[in-house]
Structures are given as C-alpha cells and as structure tokens.
Amino acid sequence: MRADPPNSMKFNHLRRASAPVRTAKRLSFGIPALDEAFGGGLSLGTVIEWGVRPGRGGRRLIVELLARATSAPWKLWCLWIGPPHGATTTLGIYPPAWSAAGVDLTRMRFAASEHPVEDLKPALVDPLFKVVVLDAPLRLTSDEAAYLAREARRLQRIVILLRDRELDDARGNVWAKIRVNCRREGWLAPGYRLEPVRGLSPRLTRFRASLDPC
Amino acid sequence: MLTAADAPWPRYLAVELSGDGARLLALSPWLMRWEGEVLWLVDLTPCRRYWETLAERAGRTAAELVRELLPRLLGEDLVRAASADHPWRALLLARAMGERKVGGILDWDAPFGKALRDALTWSGWLALAKSCAVHLQSLHQKRFGAQRFAQQCRQLEGAMARLGARGPLMLAGEEAMAFRRRFGSWIGIFWEWGAPRDPASVPRTAAPLPRDPAAPFFPRASVPRSQAPRRPHLMLIPDAVGGGASEETEAPRDAGLPPREDVAAPSPSREPGFPWLAWLPRTTPERPRHLDFPLWRWDDLAPLLAEDLAALGVDPRWQPEERVTELVWQLTLNDLSEIAVSVVFRHPHDLRKDAASGFRITLLQASYAFEDAMRHARRHRESEVELPITSWSVRVAGRIVTLTTWADLFGEAGSDTDLVRLLEIENALAVGLERYTLTADWLPESSYVRAASTSTELADWVTLARRRPLFYTVTPVPLTAAELRGSRQLFLERVATKWWEAGNPDSGRRDYYQLLDREGRYLWAFRDEQGAWFKHGLFG
C-alpha cells in the first residue's frame, strides 16, 4: 500500500498552477485561456494596444494583470494614466473595487493628464514603473507612441494603451507589438470575446473567466 | 469612533512650548506665533504628502507620525499640542488642555480631546477670542473695531453669567447667526469656527481637494502677479499678543536659522477670515539677474536660471539641512510689468543635491510654472505675442529644516528606496500622482481616501467592493426613462446611506444594480427610496 505523500508535496501541482508565470519575463493574467493566447502572458518591454469601449468589461482584464503585477512575487510599481476629470468623462477611479480585484494599492499610482507623455515624462523615463497603462489618452502623437515603445524596450516595461474604440487594420499604433479588441459577453456568467488585430493567433476568440464583475 | 487608520490628517497644530519655536520649521514652513514664543500655530498642509510618504516608510499613519515627531523634536520643551482641521479649533483645544493642565498631544476628534473641549470655560473661550482680536487689529481687518469687540465680549460674559452657562457646551447646537445677532459678527464667526462641522462637508482627504479632482494636489504654481499672495508686507505683532514677549524676533538659538518676522501672508490653507501672520525669514536667499538683451524662449532662459540656482545653493543665508518647498521667480518684462512665477515643489526639495544633476528637477518644475504663467499673461493681454524678459530675481520663498536625527525613523540617510525615488519623481512631474487608501466604511463615496496611510484589517470591506465597479462618479447622475428602456438589471446590494448626516431621513437606502443598457455598457446604477434611478459608475 502506497503511503500518502507529505503535505508539502500534496498540493505542489496546485501551487504551480496558481503561481504567476515568471519565466521568460512574462507577466501572466492569471486566466489560463488568456495566458495561452498571449504565449504565457505579456512579455516585459512591449507595447500592446487594447481596444475596449467604456463599460464593456475589457478594462477588467487589465486590472487582473495589474493585480498580478503588484502582488508577490512581482511587486512591480504600476502607473495608470487616465484623461483629466471632466475632459471626456466624469468617471473617476473607485479604489475599493481595484483592491477587491487583487490590486495592491500601495504599488499603484494614478495620474490624469491631457498630454500624458509630456506631463509625465519624468515618470516615464524612470525605471521605477514597470507597467504603465494609458487609458484613452486624448492626445498621443505617433512620435510619442514611438518614444513609449523605445522606453518600454529600454526599461523592460509593459506599456498598455487602452483605446475607447474598436481597433482595426486601417489605423492605429504601429509600434504596438500586439493589438487586440476585447469586450465582455454574457449576463450572469460573464465571458469575454477577444479579437486579435495584430500579433496574436486569431484562434482564440471567446473564453470564460470567473472574475468579479467590477 | 475613529480608528488610528481613519484618524484624519491633522491640518493644524497648536503647540505650546518653552524654548525655541523655530524647531517647528522641521514640520512645515508655515508657522504663526500666536502668543509670543509660547503658543505656535503650524499649518501642515504644504508638506502633507511628504509626511504621508515618510509615514508609509515608517509603517505609521501620517497623524501617528506627527504625534511621534513632536516629542522627538521638542523634547522636554513640549508642554502640550492640539491638532484639528481648523486653526481656531486647534487653539480652542490647546486652551482647554491648558485649563485642565493636561499635557501631551490630542486631536480635536479624539474622545479625550472631545471631553476636554466640552469642559472649556467661557473665560478660556473669551481669552482666545481676545488674543485673536489682537491679530485682527494688527492686520487692520475690515469691519473690526477693537473697542466694540471688547464691549461685545463683556456682553457675552454677562449674558453667560446670567444664564449660568459655565462653558460653550451649554449652548452647543446654537446657531452662529444667533451669536452674530446678539454679540456681533466676530463673536458669531468665532462660534462658527469652533462648532463641529457637518461631517458630510469635511473632505475625506482631510485637506482641501482641488476643484478638479484629477488635478494635482498642490497646484502647479503658475500664479500671475495679480493673483499671487502678497507676501512681504511687513507686520510685526504688537507687544500685547505676546504679553510683551518680543516685538523683534531673535535669531532662533539652536537652529542657526536667519532671523524671522511676522508677516501678513495667507496660509496655504487659507481659512476664510482667519488672521494668519506667517512667521517668515526676514531675509531670504535671493539672486537677481539683469539680462543684456530680452529673452523669452525657455531654452534660452534655462541655462541662466541654472546659474542663479547654483548661486542660491551656496548662499550663506541658509543651512545645508534646509529643503525648498517654494521658489518665486519674479520676471520683469520690457514694458516694466512684472510676473511672479511661483515654483512649488510637491515635497521638500534638496536644491544642493539637485545641483549634481544640473538642477534637472528644479528646472522642470520651473518650466511648467513658467509656461503656465506666460500662457496666463498672454491670455490676460489678449495677445499671442511672446513677452520679452529683461531681468528677474529668484528667491527661496518656502523651506523646511530636515533633521538628521530622524534618519533612524525613516532610514533616509544614504538609502535609496522606491518611496524616496517616488518623492523625487513626483517633484519633477507636471501633474501629481494620486494614491488611494481604503477606509472602513460601507458607503461607496466614503470607502477610500486620497492619501497614504497604514491600513488596518479591511478584508471585510474589500469583500464588499467585489461587486462594485472600477470607475465611478462622485456625484450620481440621474437616469432618464429613455435610458432605462430596454435595459437589463441585476440586483447587487442594498446600501444604507448616512441619512442622519444629510439630515434627510427619506434618503435612507440605495438598491444597487448592474444595468446593461441598450448600447451594451455595463453600468452601476442605483434606485433610491423614491424609485428614481441614478448612474453611479461603470464596470471595467
């Protein structure tokens, strides 16, 4: 009769499955289907463009990524830059929901600017922030997009550019390695629909994720 | 009852001490001598973010940190200190502590502080009112007459004696207007300052929020001359204030700082009507420059300004341990008009250390302030023409003293942690970085503060937020019947409002729903007790 393995070994497979993937400098979403689509997660040093219309759930997945980034073992500093209050929206951050989603608020900083690259350049040239999210920037020139990509490579930083519209082949950020549209589908059991525009295999279009609705 | 984590950031401190009050400059550049060298007021607002960050490093709340720093700073000389969100309240509490011979540091909202201020006598209250009157008089406050005020004080004293009211507690809940009518406007104003504020009106950040919530906490200094605070218009406190203590300020004995004097200058918090006499250095490090030919482009100005900053950095009028909180760059244009460019740092800035990097951080902040000031000046003149500058002077307008003895608390000396780097990054930015901390409150709008603090156990409250959205509007937006038509709703939670604070028992609860509208957006909406729908947020 085989003896039961010691407790420390019993749950090793579970521990491996739940631990964030840190191999090859990839930051995982913690959602298996999504991580698979991104080849294990987002690699440091890249710019991705994410087409999410407001209120369609796409930002929820980015917050899931931030939850991984800010918690152990990564514990990265993350910066979320949104449009100024009142410019295009009266919405502000609701921090308790971010915390409930797993984001460590002590490692997060938020800023609002109409000219994000110009106003926040000292923060963008500093290696402190390893994940920078530009949420629907009002003004972002192609030179600035190139600059962001260059700094992302230099500082091994992930830059996520959120657009308030659906991305297409016709126009967009040429410096983004991955361009993808995302939205929530379903009512009671939410799923997500992913539409790769560039850089991802078009195989995965729908997946389910048991996330809180925030 | 407030927990340590919820304890509001003390905006004002009233500190009674023996010895050298200049040591309080380690807390904030904004001091006021209320009663000679004995009772001081400290406006902590300008350095709030700095202390919050350091408190985070030390694993304390900012309020805890200040309470820990004061005894270390003043030692045996600290008699008592009171903190509050208004200078008058801080003084009232200090007076109440003095009446009962209570030492230590107390907060206006702390249970013991509340008990003490409830025990304040009318004689203590009137003594404070009379000391405030001296400041009002020295400021030549409009519609203030010293004789008339003294008469009103006697009337109040007599009336309270007839009523048998020992202290203000007996009249708690009385409207300020009633005092104004009976005893004059200033007595009414003092009463209003001391009355507990409506909790709903007290900002959760414990310091005034900028009008635009997205704007940096400290406005990025672009103050045209017309709006700039009129600083050095000299005003010495008369003998009576300090009980004959001094009309000339001696140079602080131990700090080795330049001599200071009392100057009529609004405190950064600008409590309306409060007579603030800032205790500012008599001479400030200043560097004038006369240009050989007019310049207007920043790229031409920056190298010359860097030269002046280098000269300022070695000015003997200030000490190596001083850090800058504000520079004023006074520009003279070729039509002899002047523009004051106020360069405010979010955290106390080490000018000497910045010299090693060619004043990168100082020049960045100066460039933002310069561009804003010029934009404003052009708009004011209704002209797009560049404004040629012929001369300027740059001076240190705000500074605090850092103490090396605190290094053990923060580990600042020689260390380069992420939080210290963040301080430097924030000083270099055009817009401020916000950070949030959760509070133990069920109501969405009260469940976080825009500040750093050490959170207590909040797991239960975080669970509550799992069905709330990532983005929300501070003010709920009414939803029309047309917007609701064809939408799907999923009930999420019922939230009881703090109707007792709003004074409206009918606004007792909100039923929150996830609402999928016809455009496919997931809204966070609630229905109040009257059945009206409001949009309160947007799911990610």
Walk me through what this model shows.
The complex is a heterodimer of chains A (214) and B (540). Chain A is globular and about 40 Å long. Chain A has an 8-stranded mixed β-sheet, with helices on both faces. In chain A, strands 1-2 form a two-stranded antiparallel sheet. In chain A, 27% of the residues lie in helices and 25% in strands. The N terminus of chain A is likely disordered. In chain A, strand 9 and strand 10 form a beta hairpin. With 214 residues, chain A is an alpha/beta fold. Chain B has 540 residues and is of the alpha+beta class. A 5-stranded mixed β-sheet of chain B has the order 2-3-1-4-5, sandwiched between helices. The longest helix of chain B has 22 residues. Classes of the chains: A alpha/beta (214), B alpha+beta (540). At the A-B interface, helix 4, strand 4, strand 5, helix 5 and strand 6 of A face helix 13, strand 12, helix 14 and strand 14 of B. Strand 5 of chain A pairs antiparallel with strand 14 of chain B, so a sheet runs across the interface.
Strand content of chain B: 15-25%
Strand order of the largest sheet of chain B: 2-3-1-4-5
Q: Secondary-structure element order of chain A, as H and E?
A: HHEHEEHEEHEHHEHEEEE
Which two protein chains have the largest interface (Cβ within 8 Å of the partner's Cβ), and how many residues from each?
A: A-B, 51 and 54 residues
Average of pLDDT of chain A: 83
Distance between the amino and carboxyl termini of chain A: 49 Å
Total beta strands of chain B: 18
Percentage beta strand of chain A = 25-35%
What's the total helix number of chain A? 8
Number of strands of chain A: 11
User: Mean of residue pLDDT of chain B?
Assistant: 79
Q: What general form of chain A does the structure show? A: globular
The helix/strand class of chain B is alpha+beta
